Amino acid sequence: MEEMMMRIKNVLKYFGVGFVSLLVLGIIAIVLSKSVRDNTYHVGTIGAAFAAKHVCSEFYLNGRSIDEIFQRDLMAVDERTSLFSAKNDNMNNAIYTNLGGFFSTYAAYRDGLGCTLVHDMNIKEYQASAVRIVRHKKSGSEHEYPLKSNIGNTVNGVNFQKLKQAVENSFYEPIEESKQDTRAVIVLHRGKIIAEKYAPGFGKESLFYSMSMAKSVVATLIGILVDEDKLNIDDIGLFPEWSDLSDQRKNISLHDLLTMSSGLEFEEVEAPGTDLTTMVYRSSDMAAFAANKPLIHKPGTYWSYSSGTSNLLAKVYANQFENLQQAYQFAWDGLFAPADMVSTIFETDQSNVFDAGGSLYATARDWARFGQIYLNRGSINGKRIISEKWVDYVSTPVKSAPIGIYGGQFWLNKGALNDNGEMVRFLEKCPSDLYFALGHFDQIVAIVPSKEAVIVRLGWSTDPNNPFNFGEHICNILSSIEDK
């Protein structure tokens, strides 16, 4: 009984109200308010799922301790996560989390595929669905393009003293109690590293969490299929859920999905019970969740950023193959291996479709390689990955987005004229040709053709009251490089 009372106290403490008062309120809620009960369930299940998934990925992919993951990552997002417990299930290669014995959640690790929340399957059954990818070795040594270092060398057009200071400033903590936690910065110029720095505890072999930068990667995979005439951006009738003649969702094109202009309802807010958190933390099939959302705008006319849309793109990609084995092997052979992005782990949901909303892991150098593909207009290491036409497509503003801010699953800095005839851009001090993959907590891979540069910043900036100003830092780094 004493143990049970302690478990209940921990649960109540998590929801931020005193034990006795919340117990009384809880009894009233059980009797009177289904909405309160539902909200409590949402908060508990989402917290447990977030902890399970993140701990699993960082524990198995990076070898970090569970205590460190809680202290440095989870509690930085919400201190109440300290009340959750997490255990490594060695027998099943899984992480098990709960809150005082309630809201039990599993995230399972599969070699080469990373971690996935398992909602309604037996863990052993799920593990049996793992596939083995033929992973090619690096095509060159660590010193070959694009990783040859020019750090400390004299490079025309680069002010190394100014660059070094700008990179150092990216790691500066203005408020010690609330860290911005930059973990890696790499700058490439003309395909060579001119700056590279890691925070203590991280290094060249560390795998970094993409967050929404995964959207740009899945767009690249779609681009490969378009280049091979296996898909067309004008394709419609993309999902069986939309096949009814009276269902206007059948008119949503691949282009509409790529440019976040599908017109589908989707609440991109991190809060209990929203579309985003329900899809990410409670859905075994994320694309099915997104596909079942209603149409609230005519396709192609209204821009709305949506992780659900990106997961629909991942499903479009998956539907071109018979199974995960083929889908993953195509991604490996068509993108990751030829680009030498051999650290890449693209995690899936329980339905074995890539989590394009945001769950891909790669080293900082491999993220730099990804940016270099686009800086080179689609090629790397002398190998063509995507066409120049696709590079132009993803970096061209969609008309429905404000101030030229978005293209094909990439953010842009093109800008647009306001009502006063003044040019307004996303990042005012940065070049207008800059475009970038962007992820939550300020992950960024910036491609800047006019500077012949790629900038990667990876970190864990969780406090909205002490944000990492990625625009300022990117622009300061670029100011150390002359235009080509």
From TrEMBL:
Any keyword Transferase?
no
Task: Tell me the keywords, alphabetical order.
Answer: Membrane, Transmembrane, Transmembrane helix
Q: What's the superkingdom here? A: Bacteria
Residue stretches making up the Beta-lactamase-related domain: 184-458
Pfam families reported for this sequence: Beta-lactamase
Quote the InterPro entries the UniProt record gives: Beta-lactam-related, Beta-lactam/transpept-like, Diverse_Enzym_Activities
Give the stretches traversing the membrane: 12-32
Q: Which PANTHER family match?
A: BETA-LACTAMASE-RELATED, BETA-LACTAMASE-RELATED DOMAIN-CONTAINING PROTEIN
What is this protein's name? Answer: Beta-lactamase-related domain-containing protein
What species does this protein belong to? Paremcibacter congregatus
